[in-house]
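Task: sequence in, structure out. Protein: Cobyric acid synthase.
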Amino acid sequence: MNGKPMKAGRGRGGGLLVAGTTSDAGKSVVTAGICRWLVRRGVKVAPFKGQNMSLNSFVTREGAEIGRAQAMQAQAARVEPTALMNPVLLKPGSDRSSQVVLMGRPVGELSARGYHGDGAGPGRQETLLGTVVECLEELRSTYDAVICEGAGSPAEINLRRTDIVNMGVARAARLPVVVVGDIDRGGVFASFFGTTALLSPEDQALVAGYLVNKFRGDVSLLEPGLEMLRGLTGRATYGVLPFRHGLGIDEEDGLRVSLRGAVRESVVAPPYGEGVLRVAVCAVPLMSNFTDVDALAAEPGVVVRFVDRPDEIGDADLVIVPGTRGTVRALAWLRERGLADALLRRAAEGRPVLGVCGGYQLLGEHIEDDVESRAGAVTGLGLLPVRVEFAREKTLARPVGEALGERVEGYEIHHGVASVEGGDPFLTDSGGRRLDGCRSGQVWGTHWHGSLESDGFRRAFLREVATAAGRRFVPAPDTSFATLREEQLDLLGDLIEEHADTDALLRLIESGAPSGLPFIAPGAP
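Result:
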């Protein structure tokens, strides 16, 4: 099994579904690691997730919006991300409704009941299974292997009828399934057994085995339990991945999974110069693309933290108001918590503030929103001479420009259209003409996500912040965010190569689940 998986007889590549006992068990990381391990073997591999629920999204080169986790997994596979890799993206707007993004384009807002159905008839989700399977099959016709990521747990028995991301897609495409469990949380054996036992016989027939994630200690102490698990379920454990600090990628939601933590964790590298910079990020409701600050955290001497109280931004050299799926709601939240007044004081004192996307919009003077919040006319913070009107058509773009004398790349995902009525341009074309954003004093705003990943611009921006803050901070001249990200993806590939049964994984990808796997009672109806 030292060669790469070959396509099946009808030109169809192999496949594998990585499921999890729970959300955040490590499915995204394991999927990325398998992709990187395979591509290093010369396998042409692609990631896939039929349905993703996330406020962290990305724009592909064809202008499609997909989950950032799938974009990062594509990078792990060294392929360009496309809408085929994440055909359905749900972007929560409240506890009960989400924007549905289909093949990279928003198609409307739906309640959870409207999406899943109420038992009296099919919901929107059930009707999308055909689209999801078609996208998967198109990828399998192009790639040697497709590594699919599930969502939550495959044993969500209340949602099984309409499932299009776990066992629903596994059954439709006859994919073998490996279930990942986070042993650091405890209860991993019960979770493996219970997950399997709650599936129907047809679903259980595809569950090939398990993968233990985040193990600390001596693996030999775990082995008796793994043997007992095999005796109880008839299924192998395909590896025990050790706990490693800083191995998160751009997952779905949750502050601790971003590269902010992954590159430097909670330990900040010593500053290149004499001083450090403290960055406070306002943890606004429905925060989106908080990964924008990861590149700042990758800089030696930059300390990034998320805050929700005005006293927490007092000693910050830079305050960032990040993107949000609820601009008007975030504005009200800032006011309720006293953060709005603290931002106004900062601006009056000439202390740096940066707003990104929704954060940029609420720093303006006026918001007209009949689309996202349907709140109508709302007064903004008035820190930038900008008026925003929400359009029904979403802007999805991958712009390139210049700022502070440096090239900048980014991506745009927003309904709000900004009319700038003063100040200086933030991002321009090569001729100095405004492309996006605004600067007034030490208050900056832009719709561009990802701009701080441009190394030259990030260093120039941090120099401006340090000067305004009176800090003797000097950005390191050689920090490459792209290199750090590649190193991290290689570490994920190393984890799979060194701690998983790769020969057995290759057999699953090529040949599917083993035949004759036993049924574990009681099973689902």
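The chain has two domains: 14-248+486-510, 277-476.
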